[in-house]
Design goal:
- The complex is a heterotrimer of chains A (232), B (212) and C (320).
- By secondary structure, chain B is mainly alpha-helical.
- Chain B has seven helices and no strands.
- Chain C contains eleven helices and six strands.
- A six-stranded parallel beta sheet of chain C has the order 3-2-1-4-5-6.
- Chain C starts with a helix and ends with a helix.
- The chains are: A mainly alpha (232), B mainly alpha (212), C alpha/beta (320).
């Protein structure tokens, strides 16, 4: 029952959604519409579940005094502070339990939640991803080595795109006469993107779509049950 | 006071920026602290916005303001709470019911839309008249699209061993894929550099006021 | 062994330092190189430009602060263009942080003249930039960083609205296709949707002239194409980070699944050029170009070193 009923629910819901695509009239259309509204709400709870899992994992590490447990404490404190200020005074778009916190707003120049977002989160998020620029430079130096015809092809394309998609490509070949404009680097870059790149990406897309269709069918028909998790 | 707090905010941003950048030299307490604060704030933001943007307008307000019309919404509310039970391992099986609704809906929708958009429409878009636009680049490009798509899909066919003559389209497919990966590499470099430019612009403009 | 580790570490730090300088110096000393416009960005521009005034359009802010350098300039230029053409802008978000991203763009574009410094007031500089662009190879980088127009007279709820975030991705878009008002009963500020004049006569996605998704990943542009265009036949266009851009090009086809695409910072700079502005994306293109050259030099040096190492190994093997 603990595994059979969920599999039956998945089948019924999946089939209802598929049938509603072909028969949009009542009752299938309205049932599918209701399911969509329910999905929004349940998906919201799923995100809350993710947050609770994170807190549980951090709490476990702090309790067991795992290595670097102090940093997990910092994570929980930052989470708690932001949730607290968000609930008490709201954010730019919403009021909190204590209203809009005008005094705090005048003092900080923004609501506490927005202050944390603008002065902490934005910088952390942006910098975390900007580290990748350095790593790609390091990887390009170490690992991007030409060894075969295929890697040659990859390298030549990368060079053309990297030059052609910047202003430098324009400078390098902008002097070419009109009848040789097909050698203009930005034009070659556009040609590569529109034609051979699109062809390959389309092949990947078609193949991936077959994979998604296959796995969706397996899930609906109950052949694939890994989403139920292990145990009883 | 607001101006002072704004300036303090900029300095906090600079401190956090350099804390993260310090990882380029080696792992250190400043980076680990900044990383965990990032995780905490990220989770908090999602949590708050789910409550204010999804649960309040789509669940609590309709149910509390007009129960007679919206009583049906209590069901997804209950299912959502059952989903949260997943956090308690002995009762984890209860969360399978709402999960089944979510997975079933997602699977049904994905199947239909991937079939239409990524399969049928893409195949139809490949069945083009290569001579439709009378220019050398368009004609050559159209042939490349047809050839590249067919050979690329052929490369992903693993049900029969590709050898001898049967390996030729696969080889051509690999070449097209390599061209695509080269293009992706170029674009990835562009993306990563853009993010770094954004950070350095913040340091130069908002902190040091060297640029406007 | 520790000597090798130290050597490797200092080599890495040198690479990082060179890259940092390569990005920083052009920001301080701009060169002003020109950008060509690619056909796909032109398609996005034409879609916005040819839509009649008074049309309601939807922009989905599906990104977060980490990808702001690429996508925020696109957002600014798009809203600027839409308001120039008299379109009504409806903002939604499939990512939680998209709500703040949308609010930031609207706040900046509707800032009143007293809230911005005098050298940011755009109209005069915009005209200057257009004239220079036609005659000179290099654009004179003397204009302010923010020479995008400001619209302090635009009113929330009438000319633009932020409906907020909803979880559910593809399902959300499908629900919007059926009934936007049920999916978004209020805007992000809690105002009932029925009391917003901009939402009069807007019930389904089909009531919109076009949809633009500014997307940093999943969910985003792909879902809008699949549901909004392929199911509900609404015109869809978009901007993505450069990482995702190559994967969306197959959707630009004879079935018009996607009407144009802005890819990364270059796409944003091209759109700014079409708008006749020298905005935040254009300023960064000099750094982008120099950094690309530096990366190519790194690749070349790495390949030369590898080639020499392999030749030495081959010679050593031949001697044996």
């Amino acid at each position: 029952m603990k595994r059979t009923i969920p599999v039956i629910i998945t089948f019924v819901v999946g089939m209802l959604v598929i049938i509603s695509e072909f028969v949009p009239h009542k009752p299938f259309g309205s049932i599918a519409g209701t399911l969509e509204n329910w999905f929004l709400i349940i998906a919201g709870f799923a995100i809350i579940l993710g947050v609770l899992s994170l807190l549980r994992m951090s709490g476990h590490k702090i309790n067991s005094k795992a290595p670097n447990w102090q940093y997990y404490l910092a994570g929980i404190i930052s989470f708690s502070v932001m949730v607290l200020v968000g609930v008490l005074w709201g954010m730019r778009e919403s009021r909190g339990i204590f209203g809009d916190g005008e005094n705090l707003f005048n003092w900080l120049g923004a609501k506490p939640f927005d202050y944390l977002f603008n002065n902490f989160f934005i910088h952390l998020s942006a910098t975390m991803f900007s580290l990748l620029a350095f790593y790609i430079a390091s990887a390009a130096y170490r690992a991007f080595i030409i060894r075969s015809f295929e890697s040659n092809l990859l390298m030549i394309t990368a060079v053309i795109i990297m030059l052609g998609r910047t202003s430098l490509g324009n400078i390098m070949t902008g002097w070419l006469p009109q009848n040789m404009q097909f050698l203009h680097l930005p034009r070659i870059a556009d040609y590569i993107m529109i034609y051979p790149n699109s062809a390959a990406q389309r092949a990947i897309m078609i193949s991936a779509a077959l994979g998604v269709i296959g796995s969706s069918l397996r899930i609906i028909l109950g052949i694939e049950r890994s989403y139920l998790g292990g145990g009883n | 006071m607001a101006e002072i707090m704004t300036t303090i905010g900029v300095w906090i941003g600079v401190f956090l920026t350099f804390s993260i950048f310090s990882f380029l030299y080696r792992d250190n307490p400043f980076y680990r602290f900044a990383e965990q604060v990032f995780v905490g704030l990220s989770a908090a933001y999602g949590f708050i916005y789910i409550i204010y943007n999804v649960l309040i307008p789509n669940l609590f307000t309709p149910v509390l303001s007009d129960m007679s019309q919206n009583w049906l919404l209590i069901i997804p509310g209950i299912l959502g709470i059952l989903m949260l039970v997943r956090i308690y391992p002995p009762a984890e099986w209860i969360s399978r019911y709402p999960l089944a609704v979510v997975i079933g809906t997602s699977a049904g929708i994905s199947l239909m839309f991937y079939l239409k958009s990524d399969f049928m429409n893409q195949i139809a878009a490949t069945m083009i008249n290569p001579f439709a636009i009378p220019s050398a680049s368009a004609i050559s490009g159209s042939f490349l699209i047809i050839l590249g798509t067919i050979c690329g899909v052929y490369f992903f066919y693993f049900s029969k061993k590709q050898e001898g003559l049967f390996a030729i389209p696969s080889k051509i497919g690999i070449w097209f894929l390599m061209i695509s990966f080269g293009a992706s590499f170029g674009y990835t470099v562009m993306a990563r550099i853009s993010l770094l430019i954004g950070r350095i612009e913040f340091l130069l403009r908002d902190w040091l006021h060297i640029i406007k | 062994m520790s000597y090798i580790n130290t050597h490797v570490r200092w080599e890495r730090m040198t690479l990082f330092g060179i890259l940092f300088l390569a990005v920083m110096i052009p920001l301080i000393l701009p060169i002003g190189w020109r950008t060509d416009v690619s056909p796909h960005v032109q398609m996005v521009y034409d879609l916005v430009d040819k839509t009649p005034p008074g049309s309601a359009i939807l922009i989905s802010f599906d990104y977060e602060p980490s990808t702001m350098p690429e996508l925020k300039p696109m957002a600014m230029s798009l809203v600027d263009h839409a308001w120039q053409k008299g379109h009504k802008v409806i903002a939604v978000a499939l990512w939680p942080m998209g709500v703040q991203m949308a609010n930031d763009v609207f706040s900046e574009l509707t800032a009143s003249p007293s809230e911005i410094s005098s050298d940011e007031i755009p109209d005069v500089q915009t005209t200057d930039v257009k004239e220079k662009d036609e005659s000179d190879e290099m654009m004179t980088p003397a204009v302010s960083a923010n020479s995008i127009r400001r619209y302090s007279s635009k009113r929330y709820g009438i000319d633009y609205v932020n409906l907020g975030f909803k979880s559910g991705a593809m399902v959300t878009i499908k629900a919007m296709g059926r009934n936007i008002r049920e999916t978004f009963p209020t805007d992000t500020f809690g105002t009932p949707i029925d009391s917003l004049p901009i939402m009069d006569n807007i019930v389904h996605l089909r009531d919109l002239a076009y949809i633009i998704s500014l997307s940093a990943g999943d969910p985003g542009l792909k879902q809008w194409i699949m549901v909004a265009h392929d199911n509900f036949k609404v015109k869809v266009s978009g901007g993505t980070t450069a990482v995702s851009a190559p994967g969306f090009l197959p959707y630009i086809n004879n079935r018009n699944q996607l009407r144009g695409l802005m890819g990364g910072l270059k796409g944003a700079a091209e759109y700014e050029k079409l708008m006749g502005t020298f905005g935040p994306a254009s300023i960064k293109m000099d750094s982008q170009s120099i950094a690309h050259v530096i990366i190519l030099v790194f690749i070349a040096i790495g390949n030369v070193r590898s080639f020499r190492r392999r030749r030495k190994q081959r010679q050593a093997r031949d001697k044996e």
